[in-house]
Predict the 3D structure of the following.
Amino acid sequence: MEIASVAIATMKVAAANLSGTTMWCLLAFVGGAAVTLGFSNLGGAKSSQHVYELRLYHVNEGKMDALKARFGDHTDAIFKRHNMKSVGYWVPEDAPYSQNLFVYILEHPSREEAQKNWAAFQADPEWKKVKADSETQGPLANHIDSYFMDPTSFSALK
C-alpha cells in the first residue's frame, strides 16, 4: 500500500498549503491517480511477468557431446526464431550427472505462448532435419523433464 501512503501524504500537504477550488482540484487529481495506480497493481506483478520453463534432459550414455553440439549449433537459433528465449544452459560439474544431465531454462511470455511456440518449433522443417541427423545412432536423451515456474517476489528474474 505504498501508493496509498504517498497519496495520503500528498493530500495532507496540499490541504495544509492550499484552500478553496485549487485544493479540491489537486486533491481530486491526486486521489484519481492513486486509485488508478492502485487498480493497476491489484493483480500484482504477475500480469507483466514471464513464465520460465526448466528442462532437464537425461542424456543417453556417450551422447552428451552430441547433445551440446546440437543445442549450440542449431537448437538455440531455432528457439530464437520461434520466440523462445534461452536464459541459460548448464551441465553439472560432478559425475555421474556431468555425463548424463543437461539443464536449460527458457523464458516465455506466458504458458499459452509457450505451447504455441513449442508446437511451431516441433513442426519446423529445419528442427526435424537437425533432430533426425543428430539421432542416426540413436536418441540423445532417454527422458526430458519440464517444469513451468514463476519467479518469487525476491527473485532477480521478476
In short: DSSP finds six helices and four strands in the chain. The longest helix spans residues 20-41. The domain at 49-149 is CATH 3.30.70.100 (Alpha-Beta Plaits). Helices lie at 2-17, 20-41, 64-81, 97-100, 111-123, 125-134.
